[in-house]
Amino acid sequence: MEMINTKKVMPVQPVADDLLDKYSSAITLSDMEIFIYPDLLYSLVLANIMSPVIWQWRDDPWFAKIDKLSPYRRVVRLKQFIMDHYDFNLDLDSWGLTSKDVEIERFKEVMDPEMIAESNALFGYSGDQYYFDMDIRKHFGLDKYDGDIIPYWKTETVEAMDAFCHREGYRNGAGECVSLSTLYAAALFVVCKIPLEDIFLMATPLHSQNFVDLKGGLITNNRRIVTKNMWFNGTALSARAQRALRHEQVTMVAHCSGNIHVVYPQASIDHQAYRKFADKLTDYLQVELTQEILCNFLREHRSFQECFQIPHRCHGKPCWLAAENVYHYEHSSTFKVSDNTREKLLDEIDAYDCHPEPIEGRIDLGYFEDFFKRHPHVDLDELQHRLVAEFNCKHENACNLIEKLQAFIQITPRLPDAEGNKEQVHIAPIVLSADMEREQIIEILEGLRGENPMVDLGFYVLRDMQRCDWTPFVKAALERNPVSIAATGGLDDEALIAQLLAMTNESIYSATRLAQPDEVWNFQRGDGVERAICLANIWKSRHPQAVVGLEVADSLVRLQLDGHVVDFSSAKGLRASLSL
Question: What's the whole-number average pLDDT of the chain?
């Protein structure tokens, strides 16, 4: 088993009572906890960077000679690796359910409850009209529960993502959007050697994406990457990638220099880095209107295809094709309406779909494109006027075409305002080079723990119990692990103990790192320490007044349960004495 070098491990500092909820949140990492405690988003990136798993990817044959590739080609190679090894997962049953009242009560001293409800998807947020139309609770599968019930939706470390292959119904690893965005950020640095300074994490109430300052900008979207050209290609996948930035406020941005959150008056992110990010993202989200972009627009907005016809020649004679029919042929062709393969696409179209005369009331796409060539910088208001006067489109949607076209070519991101009254919080910078080795990185981060909260929390996300106070871990284990409790409800106490003892004695985490009870149960495996804490969690839910003692002494783990003594074996090499 891989072991972390412990020679320079600093003495563990106990977590102050007023920080206990925040530090225990670094263990459970639910979406709502990351929203309340924005330091946690980048802490997960750091934990994944410190994990041995992503470093092992560098030895995979898929990444052989990756250093000889351009930075962009490295990212494309990483994207395919992630596509092949991870599924997107938003299953309500993975990490269990809680309730709005419980969580609002928990966080009320940290953030105003009304602000939580307005800004977080789980607490009733609906965004703009798009999300009202979608019906968020039905979209997420929550409509089968009482309106107060919400999912935990815990964000997974790379180890927990990999462990999904042990669950029934999964072949690969899996994770939700925050898990995938933080996985990408860490792997971009470790595998692709993209500087951390060029990677920005963006979270909205319903999604998490990264912006990478490379080749005009890249956005990671769940398992995929989206270049600027892809962003404006009009496909369904690109439209889906646009949803968050088109419809939502960006609630936080996280970076190696710090973070900024729309709710809190303080910001730790470097001001110049944030300004650079905002400018680069804004430029990425807008494009000049050309004939190619117009065709891409029509690909996405099918209702406007009925405003257009496309001229062609069939057997030497002029003919006209309804635009929607031409776009339909794209589905089964390698040729596109929007590029220089259009004529080849038109040649594939059945003569039955050709009209010998122009179709009345439709705009000739060729004439429309010539207009853009003659007037490349035409004002859109003028274009609207000419659309009516010059192009003579009688379709009922024509009056909305220019408004929709404007929205297609230019998205203005709603970012947290750094120019307002944000108080700058100074933290020690995280300066890591892609040429460093893992142990060197861990040593540098160890030295920053007292000066940078994101770094200190990163060790708690890492779950390295040799470097952390056990109190937050135990608090999270006994308060926010409902799946193991619910799943064992049909077992009596003796059967419960027997099942935990019989479970595979194998941790999903290396070295001195520990899984939480629901990870143990979901993946049906755990080191003796982990299975003992899982058993303690279930026991305390059944017998709230029980005094539960846990003794960890290297290879022996002893759990005392009101007259029961249950022994497990451990390979973690930890020592602890706890009263749960």
Answer: 90
